[in-house]
Amino acid sequence: MGAGQSKGDAILNESTYDVITKYTKFKRNDILAWHERFLQQCPDDTQTMNKEQFCKFYRELRPQENVNRLSECVFRAFDLNGDHGVSFTEFLMAFFATTEAPLEQKLRYAFNVYDIDHNSSIDRNEILLVLRSMFELLGMDAKPDKYSYEMCADNIMKNLDVNSDERISKEEFIEGLKNDPFLRSLMNPFQHI
Ligand SMILES: [Ca+2]
Ligand SMILES: [Ca+2]
């Protein structure tokens, strides 16, 4: 960054605009405002948020909710290319999808939240890990014992793993949650935003 230039001067290139306007309903002014806000969160020149920066920002975006644990899971889900950083394009597309998009699009990101190792399927262990964040978000973390998590995970596997291969595919996840309001309320981290 040259002398006299501040981060606020950083401009978005047209291809970023094109991608974002194609996949979201944001207008140019919205995108500019988000970009400025985004850059304030990453003080280095990378223009990409690391996990710590993202989690802090995400907690600010959902101030009424307990997303302390969840924000780390959401970081992995928003980092679509898996380079351990969330770029502006990744952020704004994901933020739109998880707040204003139709249910199916929200569930696609919800799937990514659970698919911790990015292998395009969810196993019981991944469910157990994310359930703790969901219990916290839903205010169910008073003192759940190990047993409640295990029971819950078994129940989820039983209901979503339609072909019984011990894994939940993206299709099983989306179809299952679309058709089961109870599981959706328990598992979708983006239902209230
Ligand atoms: Ca990334
Ligand atoms: Ca997985």
TrEMBL record:
<keyword id="KW-0449">Lipoprotein</keyword>
<dbReference type="GO" id="GO:0005509">
    <property type="term" value="F:calcium ion binding"/>
</dbReference>
<feature type="domain" description="EF-hand">
    <location>
        <begin position="102"/>
        <end position="137"/>
    </location>
</feature>
<dbReference type="InterPro" id="IPR011992">
    <property type="entry name" value="EF-hand-dom_pair"/>
</dbReference>
<feature type="domain" description="EF-hand">
    <location>
        <begin position="148"/>
        <end position="183"/>
    </location>
</feature>
<feature type="domain" description="EF-hand">
    <location>
        <begin position="66"/>
        <end position="101"/>
    </location>
</feature>
<comment type="similarity">
    <text>Belongs to the recoverin family.</text>
</comment>
<dbReference type="InterPro" id="IPR002048">
    <property type="entry name" value="EF_hand_dom"/>
</dbReference>
<dbReference type="Pfam" id="PF13499">
    <property type="entry name" value="EF-hand_7"/>
</dbReference>
<protein>
    <recommendedName>
        <fullName>EF-hand domain-containing protein</fullName>
    </recommendedName>
</protein>
<keyword id="KW-0479">Metal-binding</keyword>
<keyword id="KW-0519">Myristate</keyword>
<keyword id="KW-0677">Repeat</keyword>
<dbReference type="InterPro" id="IPR028846">
    <property type="entry name" value="Recoverin"/>
</dbReference>
